[in-house]
Specification:
The chain is of the alpha/beta class. It folds into three domains: 85 residues, Udp-n-acetylmuramoylalanyl-d-glutamate--2,6- Diaminopimelate Ligase, Chain: A, domain 1, CATH 3.40.1390.10; 209 residues, UDP-N-acetylmuramoyl-L-alanine:D-glutamate ligase, CATH 3.40.1190; 135 residues, Protein-Tyrosine Phosphatase, Chain A. 32% of the residues lie in helices and 21% in strands.
Length: 457
């Protein structure tokens, strides 16, 4: 992590006040949360519409913070404390991280996409860690605040940083990638998330492709070759960068062979090796995510046997294809971290094709930020459910009701249940599960459909 004296910090960013009496004081790391402050960290407060972090500066220093930034237009800075007054604390954080990044001899893998960013980040980190010292974005620190904090957490001895880059509007990834300066970028896919803000999948693709704007000379672009929006735009992209594709079809540089799906994960081979790989994560879509991570590992000369070992150790963040046990012996796939039509369709496909269960139940909730066609997206998801392979569908929420309407086109009405209250949903669901049942639960994050998972345990 960053370790600098206040004098050195003042040489990295513009500081407005006299810090001579604290010049030799050293900070180690940075934080924006006084609840998690650690000894020696630089505390960075933000001035918001409803709250002002400057109120907690003195408390942060009492808790052990080494120093704090202070925004110039906030009155009464406690100058008797180690305070660095800056024009804007957010810009101060960003510029400090930019300066620190420029000092580091670290290679960066940048990851973006509509779905699978965090999963791909975790997989890529595991594979590269077989040969290198690797750090990754922790949690959801993937935006204009989080990514600078992640960079400031990097150790000087870190060889590769795997950085997730998220967005909600155009221009955000451009800023992040120019800050991180990746040597390799991965674009997982283009889905419907952020349609409400960006208006079309074409606009989403353009926003995700901003990640190449910060790519170093002779870098590597890894992208889903099965996605026409990416393929067409990148085919016309002329630079010194190398382009490699992953996907289901043989037209890609790397593609899977002989996928065997079990309830403990997927076994498969690839076109580039005779080694058989096991990924302890459910879903063909996650095999595709793994392919992009494998391509990054190949770029950094990680041998296939090491890649195999790294994949076998993959563990995803909670509520992403998490396998749990219900109190009636049923298996539960908790995929409630987030949802879009693309990711929900992949989860439905997974459940439909999963062997070994006599009773397969979908529990689906609202998918948010889909714009004016949100009701149609939900109806189409319901209509796409394979009635031969799915035994019952439970939905939750206003938009979930449109999934139920679509599902009734392919399943008998008595097998489709729509709720706007979780408690009766859980009670009815319990009547349909036993030790030969598997239940998949998925919805957007704010719907908190993990409550249904808890109700079954």
């Amino acid at each position: 992590m960053i370790r600098k004296t206040l004098k050195e910090i003042a040489e990295m960013i513009k500081v407005e006040n006299d810090i001579s009496s604290f010049a030799d004081l050293q900070i180690a790391g940075a934080s924006i949360d006084t609840r998690k402050i650690e000894k020696g960290q630089l505390f960075i407060p933000f001035k918001g519409q409803n709250s002002d972090g400057h109120r907690f500066v003195e408390d942060a220093i009492k808790k052990g913070a080494g120093a704090a930034l202070w925004q110039k237009d906030v009155p009464n800075p406690p100058l008797h404390l180690p305070i660095l007054v800056v024009e804007d604390t957010l810009i101060g954080l960003q510029e400090l991280s930019r300066s620190y990044r420029n000092e580091l001899n670290v290679k960066v893998v940048g990851i973006t996409g509509s779905n699978g960013k965090t999963t791909t980040k975790d997989m890529t980190t595991n594979l590269l860690a077989q040969r290198y010292k690797v750090q990754k974005t922790e949690g959801n620190y993937n935006n204009h605040m989080g990514l600078p904090l992640t960079i400031l957490s990097l150790e000087e001895t870190t060889e590769i940083a795997v950085l997730e880059m998220g967005m909600s509007s155009k221009g955000e990834i451009d800023f992040l990638t120019r800050l991180a300066r990746p040597e390799v970028v991965i674009i997982t896919n283009i889905g419907e998330a952020h349609l409400q803000d960006l208006g079309s999948k074409e606009a989403i693709a353009e926003a995700k492709l901003e990640i190449i704007n910060g790519l170093t000379d002779d870098g590597l672009i890894i992208y889903l070759g099965d996605e026409p929006l990416l393929h067409n735009k990148l085919e016309a992209y002329i630079s010194s960068a190398t382009k490699k594709t992953f996907g289901r079809t043989r037209l890609n540089d790397i593609y899977p062979l002989d996928i065997i799906q079990e309830d403990s994960g997927s076994t498969y081979k690839i076109n580039l090796s005779d080694v058989e790989f096991f990924l302890p994560v459910l879903g063909t879509h996650n095999v595709l995510n793994a392919l992009s991570a494998m391509m990054a590992a190949i770029h950094y000369n990680v041998p296939f046997e090491d890649i195999k070992a790294g994949l076998a150790k993959v563990r995803l963040t909670n509520m992403r294809m998490e396998i749990l046990q219900g109190k009636h012996g049923e298996k539960i796939i908790n995929d409630a971290y987030n949802a879009s039509p693309t990711s929900t369709q992949a989860s439905i496909e997974l459940l439909a094709n999963l062997p070994g269960y006599k009773n397969k139940i979908l529990v689906l909730g609202d998918m948010l930020e889909l714009g004016p066609d949100e009701e149609k997206y939900h109806f189409d998801i319901g209509k796409s459910i394979c009635g031969e392979n799915i035994d019952a569908v439970f939905t939750f929420g206003r938009l979930g009701a449109f999934i139920a309407d679509g599902a009734k086109q392919v399943l008998p009405a008595e097998k489709v249940f729509a709720f706007d209250d979780k408690e009766p949903l859980i009670n009815e669901l319990k009547n349909h599960v036993d030790d030969e049942t598997i239940v998949l639960v998925k919805a957007s994050r704010s719907i908190k459909l993990e409550d249904v998972v808890s109700g079954l345990q």
